[in-house]
Design a protein that fits this description.
The complex is a heterodimer of chains A (318) and B (479). Chain A contains eleven helices and 15 strands. Chain A has 318 residues and is of the alpha/beta class. Chain A starts with a helix and ends with a strand. Chain B has 479 residues and is mainly alpha-helical. Chain B is built from 18 helices and no strands. Chain B is globular and about 70 Å long. The chains are: A alpha/beta (318), B mainly alpha (479).
Chain lengths: 318, 479
């Protein structure tokens, strides 16, 4: 028995070391940047990190502002692009990011992307405030799905997300999810591989909202949505904000955001035979999808923005 | 709890440690532990059906004793038929009720009578076909006075429910397993290492071969109308290796796991795709089921004694039952009947036992005759699997019609990754060929120096890391 156990232990050690090498060489696990919570409660990535998302063809890099993606702040007229994993867009090369594509249409503008997986609508609104105090964009494009409104309501608590407490009308900051375990898993890649392969410890509730491959739409609670929108009306500069609503957003939500004073674009896939998504199991937009999205935004921006030198004036009416 | 899950990877070492380190001196407690672990393993699927398993165990345990005690033939028969009918009754209700109800309604509608079939909205208790057959063989053996009833309820329950074989076999016999359960077991290094080796090989078959083949087989079988004939042929091949990798992989893990506890289970697969005729194939595929039907149906029905008509009849009966055992669907029945037709020439010509030895034993390559025979048997098997995999008979016929179309000679349209998997399957086939004289393909690897054998193990693990397919349930869990 002793011989068996010693050999088994040796073998497991050998496999662990070899496995670590294999996982690293073949990039079998996605590399995900480490987060920190800034003074405003927004979760951002620690600047300077680089890595490779397993399904993507190119590397990602965290810029000095703590976001992945485009940070073109040289221009006076900056348009920010805010959203969740769709904007973060780790699964596609950076040339497929909204910032890159829109830049090719509007060369006189600078585009700044602030995207992170798990950003709720209320966190996106907070990001507009943060950006207003730093890079001062002339306009914010916030990409949201109905889910993001639902997840903004702290009644349905997601600990790692920024939400709004509707009773006290206060922002509830998200907490970094298991930072210690994450540190171990990101460094010991064979463990991370096994964790991804056998996701037994993932809480079902969190699993649902975190799964990158699925984008589920929950029915919006009209009452809580109205409260969230009312909070936004009082606390943010809505005239600078354009909501880019994901395809399939209900008419109810469209009307509610318009009534609350938001300008909005509802993305439309009708008539497009080609799918916008990465795959049948991954609802994120592919490079093609991002181009189609940008085309619809281009049409909106061309119609609704009147350029006067470097100053942007937005049409007051839709 | 799947064999290829982290749950099992945690469960197994805990049971192993308790079994050998804490309870090694007490056989009763060891058996009790294994029984508790088995019930826990089963309850992880659906605890409600644990009661059905326990009831079935109690029934066979009790009727087994009663049959042995009965002094009058009528009483003996009463207990015997009670056990048989209740066991088959459960199987009938859970597995076949809807099939009969729907088939009856369909038959009536064919003669102009419209009725709504009365169906039951129940899920199939996992492993019911397997543990029912354990119980049936036990009761039949007692009735035929081949064995004496087991008096120790724990030992008997463990025979029925031992977790490695509980949900997908092999289908054990009381004559083989019960004596092992009752005997004191000692830890043997070589046996334990061999068990781990077989588990590793089984995992490789399941994770790399079966799960990857399943991905492409599903794509092709889901839309046969959109595929060329050549792609459909590849689809059937993918399924051929999926089902082999899946089921024999499961059996390898089961046998390896049992070996870790000092218990030898019946061998269930013996390189079936190297068979030279269909009779040989059925001696090498799902051996525990084939031999069960042989011993409890074919031979009692007269076997091959009594002329050709009896042989033909009995052969059709066991293949019909075998198809039906797999599921309540005409596709399985057709698959069974097709195999009966395949085997018929060798039954009638009395050549069904002409290939008993291992093909090309002691040689590197088969003779041309062996090769052609293997190729023909393999092709027939692949064709039959189409029925097994199809959703219904229309689907199967549509698939077959698609194969025999002009597009059969076009290049198959598949993603590049499909060819990588085919290459892996080819390598797997080569390893199986070279290992065919052993208990399982890599069982003889221990004769090489440790660095060589460890490199092979490491290579298998690396392949599992790189080519891990999307996790699929074991196919035979549904039976």
């Amino acid at each position: 028995m002793q011989k068996f156990l010693i050999k088994l232990l040796l073998f497991i050690t050998f496999i662990t070391i070899g496995g670590e090498a294999i996982v690293r060489v073949f990039q079998l696990t996605p590399e995900i940047p480490h987060l920190f919570v800034d003074h405003t409660g927004i979760q951002r990535y620690i600047p300077g990190q680089t890595g490779h998302y397993s399904k993507a063809s190119s590397k990602w890099q965290v810029n000095n502002y703590g976001w992945l993606g485009i940070a073109d702040v040289k221009n006076d007229s900056i348009i920010s692009i805010i959203g969740d994993s769709f904007i973060e867009n780790m699964m596609n090369p950076i040339s497929c990011n909204q910032g890159s594509i829109l830049k090719s249409y509007f060369k006189d503008f600078g585009f700044f992307e602030a995207g992170r997986s798990g950003v709720t609508f209320i966190e996106a609104m907070q990001i507009t405030k943060l950006l207003d105090s730093t890079i001062k964009p002339k306009m914010h494009l916030i990409y949201v799905a109905e889910n993001d409104f639902y997840e903004s309501d702290a009644t349905y608590r997601f600990k790692d997300r920024m939400q709004l407490n509707l009773t006290s009308n206060t922002i509830v900051n998200g907490e970094l999810k298991a930072p210690g375990i994450k540190k171990v898993l990101y460094n010991c890649k064979v463990l991370y591989y096994l964790y991804l392969r056998f996701p037994v410890f993932v809480n079902n509730k969190n699993k649902e909202s975190h799964t990158a491959t699925e984008v589920k739409t929950r029915k919006v609670d009209v009452k809580s949505m109205n409260s969230i929108l009312e909070f936004c009306r009082k606390n943010y500069e809505l005239e600078k904000i354009v909501l880019v609503l994901h395809p399939g957003t209900s008419e109810t939500v469209e009307n509610m955001v318009t009534n609350a004073g938001f300008k909005s674009i509802t993305l439309n896939t009708t008539g497009d035979e080609k799918s916008w998504t990465v795959s049948s199991s991954d609802g994120h937009w592919s490079c093609y999808g991002h181009h189609e999205v940008a085309k619809q935004i281009r049409a909106y921006l061309t119609t609704h923005i009147k350029k006067n030198g470097t100053k942007i004036k937005m049409a007051l009416n839709k | 709890m799947l064999f290829n899950s982290l749950h099992f990877a945690l469960f197994l070492p805990v049971v192993f440690a308790l079994y050998w380190f804490v309870l090694q001196k007490n056989l009763k407690l060891q058996n009790f532990l294994l029984l508790g672990a088995s019930y826990f393993f089963y309850a992880c699927w659906d605890w409600r059906f644990l009661f059905l398993l326990i009831f079935s165990t109690l029934l066979d345990y009790y009727t087994g004793i009663k049959i042995a005690e009965a002094t009058k033939v009528r009483l003996k028969k009463f207990w015997f038929w009670l056990s048989i009918s209740v066991n088959l009754g459960f199987l009938g209700v859970f597995k076949y009720f809807n099939f009969f109800s729907e088939s009856f309604a369909e038959a009536l509608s064919n003669v102009g009578l419209q009725v709504n079939p009365w169906t039951l909205n129940v899920i199939l208790p996992i492993g019911i076909s397997f543990y029912t057959f354990h119980g049936l063989s036990y009761v039949i053996d007692i009735y035929k006075e081949k064995i004496k009833p087991e008096k120790d309820f724990i030992d008997y329950s463990l025979f029925v429910s031992f977790f490695p074989l509980l949900v997908a076999g092999p289908i054990e016999r009381a004559t083989h397993l019960l004596p092992q359960i009752k005997k004191k077991r000692t830890f043997e290094y070589s046996r334990a290492v061999d068990g781990l080796r077989q588990i590793l090989w089984g995992l490789f078959k399941k994770i790399v071969i079966a799960d990857n083949c399943a991905y492409f087989a599903n794509i092709i079988f889901d839309n046969p109308a959109e595929q060329s004939g050549s792609t459909l042929v590849l689809g059937a091949l993918f399924f051929t290796f999926q089902i082999y990798g899946d089921f024999s992989g499961y059996s390898d893990i089961a046998l390896g796991t049992a070996r870790l506890f000092g218990i030898e289970l019946l061998k269930n697969f013996s390189f079936p795709y190297f068979s030279r005729d269909i009779a040989e194939f059925w001696r090498r595929w799902h051996i525990s089921l084939s031999s069960w039907f042989r011993d409890y149906v074919y031979i009692p029905c007269g076997g091959s004694r009594g002329g050709n008509w009896i042989k033909v009849r009995n052969t059709f009966i066991i293949f019909l039952l075998s198809g039906f055992w797999h599921g309540a669907n005409w596709t399985f029945i057709t698959w069974g009947l097709l195999n009966a037709l395949y085997i018929m020439p060798s039954i009638l010509l009395n050549t069904n036992r002409s290939n008993l030895d291992i093909v090309a034993k002691g040689r590197l390559l088969p003779s041309l005759k062996d090769f052609l025979q293997i190729l023909l048997t393999f092709s027939l098997t692949v064709f039959a699997w189409i029925f097994f995999r199809a959703i219904d008979l229309d689907h199967a016929f549509q698939y077959i019609a698609g194969i025999f179309s002009p597009s059969l000679f076009q290049m198959p349209v598949l993603p590049e990754s499909a060819y990588i998997i085919l290459l892996l399957v080819a390598l797997f086939f080569i390893v199986e060929w070279f290992g065919r004289e052993g208990n399982f393909a890599i069982s003889e690897i221990s004769i090489f120096p440790t660095p060589v054998s460890w490199s092979v193990y490491f290579g298998l693990i690396v392949l599992m890391f790189i080519f891990q397919g999307k996790e699929q349930l074991f196919i035979y869990f549904q039976f």
